[in-house]
Amino acid sequence: MSQTPIRRLDARAPEFMSTLDALLAFASEADERIDAAVSEILRAVRSTGDVAVVEYTRRFDGLDVASMAQLELPQAELHSALDSLPLVQREALMVAAERVRAYHERQKLESWEFAEADGTRLGQKVTALDRVGLYVPGGRASYPSSVLMNAIPAKVAGVGELIMVVPTPGGEKNALVLAAAAITGVDRVFTIGGAQAVGALAYGTQTIPQVDKIVGPGNAYVAEAKRRVFGTVGIDMVAGPSEVLIISDGSGHAEWVAMDMFAQAEHDELAQSILLCTDAGFIDAVHAAIDRLLPTMPRRETIAKSLANRGALIHVDSLEQACTIANRIAPEHLELALEDAEAWIDHIRHAGAIFVGHWAVEALGDYCAGPNHVLPTMRSARFSSPLGTYDFQKRTSIINISQAGAQHLGKVASILAHGEGLQAHARSAEMRLKD
Amino acid sequence: MSQTPIRRLDARAPEFMSTLDALLAFASEADERIDAAVSEILRAVRSTGDVAVVEYTRRFDGLDVASMAQLELPQAELHSALDSLPLVQREALMVAAERVRAYHERQKLESWEFAEADGTRLGQKVTALDRVGLYVPGGRASYPSSVLMNAIPAKVAGVGELIMVVPTPGGEKNALVLAAAAITGVDRVFTIGGAQAVGALAYGTQTIPQVDKIVGPGNAYVAEAKRRVFGTVGIDMVAGPSEVLIISDGSGHAEWVAMDMFAQAEHDELAQSILLCTDAGFIDAVHAAIDRLLPTMPRRETIAKSLANRGALIHVDSLEQACTIANRIAPEHLELALEDAEAWIDHIRHAGAIFVGHWAVEALGDYCAGPNHVLPTMRSARFSSPLGTYDFQKRTSIINISQAGAQHLGKVASILAHGEGLQAHARSAEMRLKD
């Protein structure tokens, strides 16, 4: 009998939907201690700039420097990090970067314009952001793939200057992260982190230029700081725990499904792996595979806790029912582990990314398939999209009205403005009328 | 001599940039009283649904009804509001709606996919949001044009159900707003408002279905409620005061410029109208026109306060300098009131909308030119875009990897996953390797 604790549910049970909702629920608690600390740090960085950033970096990261300039890494250091990598790692990073770049080239928005018969021309002008800040966590969660996924779309969009911040507690640097910065052409790198790094990017300091948008993952302090500076600058999103939903018809290999669930669960204890399967026997096989494979995993403790707390193996009646449930979950990652997977794509309305068929495992998308691995979490795929080139571009409406156009449109605008009680609006249109 | 109080600045003055920054600064103060009230209202709506909404609507809007159902307007009432309008107003609304629709059709995102040599297919699937809530303010700021600008892009995107909320304090309804709802095909209308309406849309009640995104302007309570429900649902933006920047070379009519500044200033005392002009004599003429025209305006008190508090007439050296300043301001609305306006479009990197030439007055864009009048305020045009069809669509990455593709990509993913210490990621890729 299977031993590993993980929920076994039946979608036909009367209380299933409320059980599911409870399983999905995740409240990112507001923590007053974090709020207060972040508020103070941002205030200090805003008022004293470099002085505050240097002081917090001394306090939190143990780096004792005389000035902010000493916290900037020269480009040569990034390139020597790249050169020092084993060839196989360097090549893997290069292949991944090139595939991500090629995919994101296709997302680039273009300006357009059209003319009307009376000479009026309307359009939409697309421009890149001037300057973007990229937050990269230090320590255990410092991932070179995250540098690729955030920096490449910014560069493809044509962002003028890309500034990376990465804390190096105790001075310890991650060679793979620096190499990824070199490959993607990050313009400047500062070894700072936490709320002080977010504040420095949002407000600018004597040394660090103010950016227009901040992207990249971080801990609770970083997330709260991003929330607070939003408006002064753009931000990407405040992500929740990572999730995968696998829909299976019992075809394929139970071990593959088990390992795909592990890959999600190994991120942290809050990560969520759910299987929806029409075949009760296959669910048993997956559970057995979990039992068999779990002891072999270096991160088995995290995996076990994640599966026990937030995982589920769910028996469904049909693939139609599985898709209905999937649309309710709106998962970050969805694997269609099906014999005829393509036929089911159109049944899915909400998901960050759909991995189609048994060969399309999430790990390939995490690193090198090409599409972005920064995806909407916590059911936000109902209304938001993967990070993309378009997040580093913006649109300006172009309204180029001819004299003839102003005659026609001016009368309409005048009537509607008077209807709204905005007489100056009406008069400014009427002044352009020739008759 | 000109009498109307408005700043006169010279861009050549040494302290000009800091004066400009102070003029642009606008702190939307956090108000603890509003925060606490909104927090309580949202909690009540979340826990008791219709009961809370009905009670708050009784308390705040003076509507005494027995059940939520009585707060829904039947479609017939929307259509009879449309039928009851004077013909000239009905036709103006129709023309505006059709032009807005035609422009927004061009913004529609389409799905795409491409194949690689080994059979791997990658793409991006675009879908509309299922259900959207549209907040429309009651009372003085209840604008039919706002219904058109928010509802039409949602409908063009293909949103399944569009639910409008509009408070009707004391039962007073705005016929133009209901007519605009009829024209744009709004699916359901509830006469509720404030934080309770935002909560009802975000969480759903027994009567009001939960939406996926909430758009539309509102007062400080509505803005705070939207900020708080963000994450549970998407929101458009929390807008600041409206602004116009006019760049003039002294060509055109001083009275047109003065009235265009009034049109912005009449919105409210915090609205901002700024002129940048290379011709000192023309600035004098604009100031004189302001003196002459102001007494004729019904909303002259608001206009005068807005111009005195936040307006400015600024003498610049050159149009190049004007564009540099414009890019720093990143205005919501930019009028290029220039002889050769088109030549200067490419000098502008940051603006919500650019009105090109003397005939392209902002009021036409506010009502009927076609582009959206919901634009980024408070310098956020540096990183964000006008409301558009794309705000009601979302993207899903499609990752369809062939068996051959999994061999090639799996090796790359495995190397990178091991580099990040994520062994289950690596194993899930390696399990698909055939050799």
UniProtKB/TrEMBL annotation, chains A, B:
It catalyses: L-histidinol + 2 NAD(+) + H2O = L-histidine + 2 NADH + 3 H(+). Pfam families: Histidinol_dh. Its cofactor is Zn(2+). Binds 1 zinc ion per subunit. One of its GO terms (molecular function) is NAD binding. NAD(+) binds at Y135, Q196, N219. Zn(2+) binds at Q264, H267, D366, H425. Keywords: Amino-acid biosynthesis, Histidine biosynthesis, Metal-binding, NAD, Oxidoreductase, Zinc. The keyword Oxidoreductase applies. It comes from the Bacteria. Substrate binds at S242, Q264, H267, H333, D366, E420, H425. GO terms for cellular component: cytosol. GO terms for biological process: L-histidine biosynthetic process. Pathway: Amino-acid biosynthesis; L-histidine biosynthesis; L-histidine from 5-phospho-alpha-D-ribose 1-diphosphate: step 9/9. SUPFAM superfamilies: ALDH-like. PANTHER family: HISTIDINE BIOSYNTHESIS TRIFUNCTIONAL PROTEIN, HISTIDINOL DEHYDROGENASE HDH. HAMAP family: HisD (MF_01024). Catalyzes the sequential NAD-dependent oxidations of L-histidinol to L-histidinaldehyde and then to L-histidine. Belongs to the histidinol dehydrogenase family. This is Histidinol dehydrogenase. It comes from Thauera terpenica 58Eu.
